[in-house]
């Protein structure tokens, strides 16, 4: 059996509100669904852009009850989720044009 594609990427973020704004308003992802999960003290955002699906997990910095990283349910050795992902790479048709577009939105690019 061979894998045919990546189904989705899950990212735990330190700032849910900024991350939601970035993926939706800057990169153009559509919101599939958004869930407040009080039992885990976090929010979950399902996004889609073409064939790319992302799951964003995190806390709202505007809600003081959700300042710590999300709780890790079912994992007794871990109290909290670790934030991050080493990197996430997207394929675009023309990288130079895409970089210009991102810079026009005042986004800071590392390379």
UniProtKB/TrEMBL annotation:
Keywords: Dioxygenase, Metal-binding, Oxidoreductase. It comes from the Bacteria. GO terms for molecular function: dioxygenase activity; lactoylglutathione lyase activity; metal ion binding; methylmalonyl-CoA epimerase activity. GO terms for biological process: L-methylmalonyl-CoA metabolic process. Pfam families: Glyoxalase. Gene3D superfamilies: 2,3-Dihydroxybiphenyl 1,2-Dioxygenase, domain 1. Coiled coil: none annotated. Residues 5-111 form the VOC domain. InterPro entries: Glyas_Bleomycin-R_OHBP_Dase, Glyas_Fos-R_dOase_dom, Glyoxalase_1_CS, MMCE/EMCE_epimerase, VOC_core. Transmembrane segments: none annotated. This is Glyoxalase/bleomycin resistance protein/dioxygenase superfamily protein. It comes from Streptococcus pseudoporcinus.
